[in-house]
């Protein structure tokens, strides 16, 4: 019997997943949590074989919780189940050493198969998302350009960025123009969106 912890903050979704997993003879949900910051302590208490974790959780995001589990409870494998099909999210998941990454719209049979595979020590990645991550390529931005874009994403104007990075306002504006061009974006806001979805702006 594969023992499962399920971390999902939406009650209806969590209930549906529990019911779905209960249909499988060899799978048992032994714990349910709705907050990311309760995952590690619950795993320590219930000692499941695998934790199925949503990315967007209150308290602590699912990927950070997965990284903590890899350090503190290495016997518990992790499967990220998410509606956020972004290549950047997959990259972060792989960096957190998750065992699997599956989209919520995957067929039910694929979820059960993924749980068994990950519990057995194998890695399962949604094929479409893996392909998108591969096609997405490397970050075209320099570390300084990422720094400027991150400040802009936090709401800083060019003048404020210039002061904080000891640059002229003109230089910051040049950086922002270069960033928009490199990312083939329409404007600064679009560049922030592209960088975030690609996982280049953490």
TrEMBL record:
<dbReference type="Pfam" id="PF00196">
    <property type="entry name" value="GerE"/>
</dbReference>
<feature type="domain" description="HTH luxR-type">
    <location>
        <begin position="134"/>
        <end position="199"/>
    </location>
</feature>
<keyword id="KW-0238">DNA-binding</keyword>
<dbReference type="InterPro" id="IPR001789">
    <property type="entry name" value="Sig_transdc_resp-reg_receiver"/>
</dbReference>
<dbReference type="GO" id="GO:0003677">
    <property type="term" value="F:DNA binding"/>
</dbReference>
<protein>
    <submittedName>
        <fullName>Response regulator transcription factor</fullName>
    </submittedName>
</protein>
<feature type="modified residue" description="4-aspartylphosphate">
    <location>
        <position position="54"/>
    </location>
</feature>
<dbReference type="GO" id="GO:0000160">
    <property type="term" value="P:phosphorelay signal transduction system"/>
</dbReference>
<keyword id="KW-0597">Phosphoprotein</keyword>
<dbReference type="InterPro" id="IPR036388">
    <property type="entry name" value="WH-like_DNA-bd_sf"/>
</dbReference>
<dbReference type="InterPro" id="IPR016032">
    <property type="entry name" value="Sig_transdc_resp-reg_C-effctor"/>
</dbReference>
<feature type="domain" description="Response regulatory">
    <location>
        <begin position="3"/>
        <end position="119"/>
    </location>
</feature>
<dbReference type="InterPro" id="IPR011006">
    <property type="entry name" value="CheY-like_superfamily"/>
</dbReference>
<dbReference type="InterPro" id="IPR000792">
    <property type="entry name" value="Tscrpt_reg_LuxR_C"/>
</dbReference>
<dbReference type="Pfam" id="PF00072">
    <property type="entry name" value="Response_reg"/>
</dbReference>
<dbReference type="InterPro" id="IPR039420">
    <property type="entry name" value="WalR-like"/>
</dbReference>
<dbReference type="GO" id="GO:0006355">
    <property type="term" value="P:regulation of DNA-templated transcription"/>
</dbReference>
